[in-house]
Amino acid sequence: MEDETDADITPQMDKNEPNKRQNCKICERPLKVCWCNYLPNPKVTLKSNTSVIIIQHPSEKKRKIRTALMAVHGLDAGDCKIFSRRKVTETDDLSKLLKLSNAYILYPTKDSRNINDVAHNTEHKSLIILDGTWDEAKKIYSRSPVLQRLPTIHLELKNKSEYVVRTQPSETCLSTIETVAHSLATLENDPTISERLLKPLHMLCKFQLAHGAVEHDNKSYKRVKIDTPLSGDIPEDIT
What we know:
Blueprint: E1 50-56, H1 68-74, E2 80-84, H2 93-100, E3 103-106, E4 113-114, E5 125-131, H3 134-142, H4 145-148, E6 152-154, H5 176-188, H6 192-197, H7 199-210, H8 219-227
Parallel strand pairs: 1-2, 1-5, 3-5, 3-6, 4-6
């Protein structure tokens, strides 16, 4: 799940360049900041009979940085699909697909199970990821009884988000590609999957930082710094 902030820093065009920037047809980024060269080659092949379904809020497609595409293009063709929805209805074709599959949704409810609990299940399963800001993801879930009937699972990780050029709501929140990468690494019992799938994200962050972006703390950490500043100075980037 992505956060509200959408900083996108790209180098200025040369005066001799055309006014309109050319975009990559795969990642849909300007060619100068294309991350496609860092996608897994060969693509990641899943052995655990798992497929990924990303339900993307329509507003997410308008944003300049969308990490869900890193999952779509980093996995074997057909293993990850994106469906744009504000909600999933009973008559939706996606609803029919979910009913036919052994689907789990990554969403933090009081009854959600650790993803490790289902990792041993060798039957085909669909991993459902909600893509958008945290508020948008909550709305998709709350408006979709179809999704609410699915068993919920969650990740338990010690590492914080590596998407350092965007502010996360809390230290436990991850970008969409991180959620997909760490989930599949667990289900496949293969930590190299997260390493391979996250290379485009790492390079994107390095490029952004090299062109003026700053590293962001999560919002909960910022609130702590406001209440109890460690150095006696309030950071200037508090929002």
